[in-house]
């Protein structure tokens, strides 16, 4: 209890008797601290990833670095197929009921293992026909297979570990996974390139694999006390998991369509500068992602009885996301001139490309809030329709615009796609809020009618 002087004497001030504004700030403080920690970890992670990217760009050279980017782009699509979206189901179900963790853990482990093996086999058969990492054919097949195992299976397992901690609202350990993963890869790049003089992709593949194995071992050690898995498929979540993963697969395909076309119609410098610029923009989005990852479990709980129950919460999240997106875009614009000192002055178009793309963070932040709310409420079909259809149309538009007027058409298509996504996402979100509200009102009227009928039935019986 806390006592304060009052003109009429001493009185007791309980938390509920504080002014509403004070209670509101007091309730907001834990979220603000969580965001600061989450955002800080993602910013450190983003900086470490960019440093890794810069080191590899400098030391591998144009040809080797282009191979690295191409294979990584293919793996970025496959990693969303690995596990079939089971991580979202785990976060949503465990956030609502912690006793679901063993079943959801086993469910995810089975899906990651099965799909991971299949993806690596398919990739190791197809990719050697398109990419030459080593001159010896057997060694080339081995190197590409190692890259696929690293960038698909190991990455998916590490990202899954982060989601487990988020499901339990243990953001401190989730942040450690994010930062640890980025710092281990940066350390590997520093040791490989700066200390041991690695200058080929074949040499980097080994370092990359070892770094991921070390990180995964740390994740397994951190998760050991949460419970053992129950190896069974949670069948009702398979469809929702597919709905969750398919949009990300299509989004990854959309994000790589422009790169593939640029590689055919522009110079290596333009293609490389654009790929680096887009990597910077994607890293800058982490400031919004930091907000979404800490509010997702809470939104899942708030929307359990209907999305309309979380509408006020989503409005506050939207306001915060807008402010963060604008601030991030301004920061990228201001800091872009230092990029050539980091990545190398051979990237002559880099600063102009980054400044042309930085404002796309605003529409991305807008639609991300709506689709995350749909996902947290369990409306994965609606969420998938927005992201899936948007990605299909976006891939075609980006490819056509890039082919027609590179690279200006690429930039224009980027803004058109993301703005269209924002409009579509919020239209679908508002529709589902109204549907859930109407459903709840019908249920209340039916319950009221039933309770009113009970006394009448009782009187008639008497």
Strand content: under 5%
Q: Could you list the spans in which at least 5 consecutive residues all have pLDDT below 50?
A: 1-19
Number of discrete helical segments: 15
Mean pLDDT: 84
Helix content: over 70%
Spatial order of strands in the largest sheet: 1-2
Q: How many individual β-strands?
A: 2
**Sheet with most strands:** 2 strands, antiparallel
Order of helices and strands: EEHHHHHHHHHHHHHHH
Q: How much is the radius of gyration in Å?
A: 25 Å
- How many structural domains are formed by the residues? 2
Q: From the helix content, strand content and strand pairing, which structural class follows?
A: mainly alpha
In one word, what is the shape?
Answer: globular
Instruction: Report how far the terminal alpha carbons are from each other.
Output: 55 Å
Structural description of this entry:
The relative contact order is 0.10. The chain is mainly alpha-helical and 462 residues long. It is globular. It has a two-stranded antiparallel sheet. The chain has 15 helices and two strands.
